[in-house]
Write a structure and sequence with these properties.
about 10% strand, two-stranded antiparallel ribbon
């Protein structure tokens, strides 16, 4: 995609997702709205929404696990 963009002199946008915890502080409903509003392929949108819907996080603090 990068090479094609260079040769055809077109604009391109790239987003990197840090799946470790980049969106840990953003409510999942907000992410759902964001992914729905972006001009991205439907398959990618479904994957992104699926990653964050109904997601539960546990945190390790010392030897304890906190939900």
């Amino acid at each position: 995609v990068v090479e094609e963009t260079k040769t055809k002199r077109r604009h391109m946008s790239i987003a990197w997702l840090d799946m470790c915890n980049a969106f840990g502080s953003v409510p999942h409903a907000v992410l759902d709205e964001l992914f729905t509003s972006l001009p991205i392929p439907e398959d990618l949108r479904r994957i992104l929404v699926d990653i964050y819907s109904g997601n539960r996080m546990d945190f390790a603090v010392g030897k304890e696990s906190i939900r």
